[in-house]
Amino acid sequence: MLNLTNARRIGIVGGDLVGWLAAIELRRVFEPDVDVTVIETPELFSFGLGEGGSRNLVDTLCRNELDLDIFVGEAGATYKLGVLYDNWRGGGISDRYYRLFCGPGIPEIEWRVDGFFPLLSARIAMGEDLHTCVPGFDAIARHASQKDIERLLATGQSGLCRSYHFDAEAFERYLKRVGLSRGIIAHASAVCGMRLDERGCVRSLHLDGEQLEVDFVIDASGFARLGLGSVFGTRWRSFANTLPTDRAITFDLEPSEMCPDPVTRLTAMKAGWMWEVPLNRKITAGYVFSSRYADHAIAVAEVEHRLGHRVQPKHLLSLDQGYFETAWVNNLVALGTASGFVEPLDAALATHTFEQLRNIGRVLTNGGGVVPAHTIEAYNSANARSWTGVRDFLRLHYDCKRNDAPFWRDIAAAELPGGYAELRACFHKRTPRWIDIQPYVGSGWQALFHQLDWISVAASLGVVPAKAARAELRRLSAESRREVQAYLDLLNGTMSRHLPPSGWVH
Which UniProt keywords apply (predicted)? Predict the structure, then answer.
C-alpha cells in the first residue's frame, strides 16, 4: 500500500513540458500545504511529445484549468484537425489520404449495426475516400484561415474535434509560468541519484551538494530515465522488430502558405517518413528513418531533393522504441519518454503520455491518497496494454503496398507481432470494430486511437479490401441493404436527397 495522506513534498524529476504539466496536475490533486517541486536539469534532452498535438490535448488543458485562448497565444498554437498522409500508398506525389479527428455531426457514423458503420463500409466497397464525408473537410482542403476554422467549429456542424499544433518550447515556458503562479517550486540542479528506504521507496533525491526529501516522485527525465533505468533496472520491452525506424533528423521550414494547414503532414520516404507541423511563423519538421537503409547524409540529401532546397538539420537522434513493463514502482511513476518511446507518428507518444497523466491523477484522487498494491499493478497492466495498442496502430501504417525501396519491401516481408497479425487477418474480412480495440484498454484507461482511426488507416491502405466491406454489407438485413443502396445512389447522383433510416444507433 502507498499512503500519501501525510505527504509533505512531491518531486518532479525533469523540468521540460512533461515535467511541468505533471507538476500542474499534481498541484491540483494534492492539498495546498504539500510542496510540489520541479527539479530542472538542463543537461537532460527529451525528444518528447513533439509539436503535433493529440486528440486528448484539449481535455488535458481543460482538466487543469489552462485557458485555451491564453494557451493559443502563449504556445503559438494553431488548429490541428487531423493528419494528412502523403505518398503512403505508393501512387506517387498525388497519393494522399487523411485521418481526421471526427466528432458529432457525421451521418455516416451515426448509423451502426453489430459494431460497424454500414455507410462507411459502403464507401470502402465503392473505393470512395472516407475523409470526404466529413462536413468540415472542405475547409481543410481549401486551406481555410484560423478564423474561418474557429467559426466552423463553433457551428457544431463540422463533424470535427479540435486539437492544436504548438511550439513545444513556448508551451513549456507557459506551463512554467502557470506552475510558478500556483505555488510550484522550481529547483535548478542535476539529479545525481535517489535514496531508497528498506521498502524500496524513494525517500530523497541526490542533487548537487544536497538531498531533497520526497514522499512521491514523478520521473520525467526523458531519455535519461533516471528512475526505471538507473535506480530500479526495470525490464525493457523493445519494439525494434516491429517498428523499423531508429534514427531521426529535425529541421525547420519556411511556410509556403499564408494560412497554416490544420493538419500534420506525414510523407512516406525511401527509408522511413517525414513530418511537417505547421505553426504560425514556421514549420517544424523531421525525417524518421531506419539506419539499415540510410545514414544522416543520405537522409538530408533525400529531404533536400524532395523539397527542392537545402535544409539545416538541428538534431540527429537515435530512437530506441519500446517501453518499461513496469512504470509505477512503489512511490515513483515514470511519465512520457522516461517510461517508453515510439516514433512521432500520429503524435502517439503525446497521446499516451496525456493518458498516463490523467490516470495518475485519477488513481490518487479516487483513492484519497491511499493506493493499494493491486491498483498500482492494474495501472502497470493497463499502461502495458496501452503501449501494445500504440505499437500495433503504428505498425498498421507500414502495411501499405509500397515496394519502391528496400525499406518498404523488407518491412512488407517482416514477421508481425501475434496480436496485430490476428487483427490484420480479421481486417481482410471486415472493418475494424470496437471489440478489436478493447484488449488495449483496461482499468479506467481510455482508448488512445478509436475505431474510426483504425478504419481510416486500414481502409485507405487496403488492409481492409473492398471485397471485405462488400461481404460485411451482405450480412445486413434486406431493409438495411436498401438504405445502403439509397446512400450509394445519392453518392452516384441518382437521388436528390437521402432520408435517414429508422433505427439508427447513435
Answer: Plasmid
- Residue 351's domain comprises 2-69+167-239+323-390
- Sign of the four-CA dihedral 360, 341, 172, 256: negative
In a domain, 156, yes or no: no
The pTM of the whole model exceeds 0.85: yes
What's 113's DSSP letter?
Answer: B
Domain total for the chain?
A: 1
3-state SS assignment for residue 371: strand
Is the CA virtual torsion 246, 284, 454, 481 positive or negative? negative
pLDDT digits (tens, 9 = 90+) for 72-107: 999 999 999 999 999 998 866 568 999 999 999 899
For the segment 477-490, the average pLDDT, to the nearest whole number, is: 93
Q: How far is CA 70 from CA 65, 388, 432, in A?
A: 11, 35, 38
Average pLDDT value for residue range 231-242: 94
- CB-CB contact of 23 with 184 (8 Å): yes
Q: Is residue 159 within 8 Å of 134, Cβ to Cβ? A: yes
- CATH for 380: 3.50.50.60
- What whole-number distance in Å separates Cα of residue 322 and Cα of residue 223? 12
Phi and psi dihedrals of 117, rounded to 5?
A: -105, 100
Q: How far apart are alpha carbons 115 and 122 in whole angstroms?
A: 15
Q: Beta-strand (E) ranges in 189-319?
A: 191-196, 202-207, 210-213, 216-219, 236-238, 247-253, 264-268, 272-278, 283-289, 315-318
Residue 34 lies in a domain: yes
Cβ atoms of 325 and 232 closer than 8 Å: no
- CB within 8 A of 496, min separation 6: which ones? none
Residue type, 136: G
- The answer to whether 152 touches 125, Cβ cutoff 8 Å, is no
Which are the contacts of 147, defined by CB distance < 8 A and separation ≥ 6? none
Q: What is the DSSP string of 43-83?
A: T-----S-SS--TTHHHHHHHTT--HHHHHHHTT-EEE-EE
Dihedral, CA of residue 383, residue 384, residue 385 and residue 387, to nearest 10: 90
Question: Tens digits of per-residue pLDDT, 254-293?
Answer: 987 778 999 999 999 999 999 999 998 899 999 999 999 9
